[in-house]
Fold:
Amino acid sequence: MVEVENKTRVRRALSTALERTLPPGWRATLQPAGPQDGGIDAILDIVSPTGDRSRASVAFKTRAEPADVYRQLPWLRQRGAALLVAPRISPRTRKILADGGISWLEPDGDCRIAIGGLFIERSLGGSRRREPGAPETRFVADLFAGGALRIVRWLLIEPDQSWTLTDMASRARLTIGFVSRTFKTLARDAYVERERGSTRLLDRDALLGGWAAAPAPAYVALERVSLADGPSGVLRRVRELEAPSPYAITAEAAAEQIAPHARFSRVEIYVDDPEAWDRALSLTPVPRGGNVVLIRPVDRGVFDGVFERDGLTLASRPQLYVDLVRRGGVAAEAAAVIRERSLLLQP
Structure:
């Protein structure tokens, strides 16, 4: 009964929202759905200023969790033009709907409607609040930072692996409780699926894209100058020396080792002891414009999944891809080459 009452409120709110949202000259009529309409909640008839008519199936949701919407996406797409209406629609749910060609609307907030000749996109901004009545399940605040990012990284490094809580806790060096909350958050956002005590990656491309689009950590990037003969000379010296501490080469210098694409002018290396690397490579600190950049990470997870190539230790392929995308320009082009050649999954 409560669910029916909530849907009735959403239906009324939609009618009011359409009056505010439609451009001048457009008309919309909301009709109840019948038994022949395949279980949808309503039919939306839209008439343009020129008299052209469009029809869309409407689904009302009191909550639009990404995982639920992901499962219902094939059903929604079978309805033809469709509109999902819910009080709050998270960024992840919006992405799922947009990728599936489904319109969506928050009655008192944002919307993206593409039905017939009508296209409306509105973003009011502002913070998201928990819907009334939503369960108090504990989720992590940010999937792409701290310990949660370690879990994301391992899911992408080994995308075919089925993970138990214990396995991931050991691999990511985290508590089982934190892994459990992170898995719940990933499942809520339709990145993974969980069953019978194990968790598997569900949407690799979406998770990788979400990480690349998230704000970058506050790494400390130290500009250095090496007197070696260009970037290739720097890499040659790295090959020859006994590494003074853990390291992982990233960005264009690493991409060159697996998918040669374009010339690069500097070598970027994750290190946990910059001073030791200064001594080992005879580097000179400079305020900017160095040909070597030593990056002190905020979390040692950047060293997870490193691999060897031609005597060099490279950052894991997902980490490398994200670093390239975030740099933009030629680096982003190199990331596209790596992805197009399916090099993200190779050992």
